[in-house]
Amino acid sequence: MIVVNDGTNSNASPCPNSYVSLQEMRTFWENRNDSIFTASPRVSTAVLDAALLYAVDYLSQKYRMRWIGSKVEPRQCMEWPREWAAIRDYVDFPDGSLLPLGVSSKNKNLVYYTTTEIPEALKRAQIFLARAAIADDGLSASQLVGVLDRSTKREKLGELEVEYFNAQREKFFFDASREVEILLTSQRGTWERG
Hints:
The chain is an alpha+beta fold. The protein is 34% helix and 10% strand.
């Protein structure tokens, strides 16, 4: 069962276990005409529950020691909300360099997330990762692994050709991880599409 973290219930019982609700996820993908969400029959609540939980597990495991700021309460159930987490916006230039907007060189003008705020970038990342966890037929969800663990669908030796299962899944990982890396962690990862 999904218990949404609204930023004020970090130590509630039962502990929150998701940054977004089932309805938020459904609406997000229905608005983008994702066939898994617009086709009949609809993805079951059980599959969505599992996918959202797998996405939170992935985010927690991958970024646990890299989030900006610190937990508001040391024993809170989830990584967010956080205190002293600066809001960062960047212009991403074609050469890969980033320029922060609205922050002076001496960091005098930093703006912080409130101690009850769950960043929209984190919510979007959970939604993208949860979608990656859902099988193409919408009937099941599986734990998330890195994009380097792709399954090979077809190989061809002459003129070397490789086809992977579910290339769309890699895109979901990339979209979610890039935003989290840039906006919500203390160090920027290096991203290149292979």
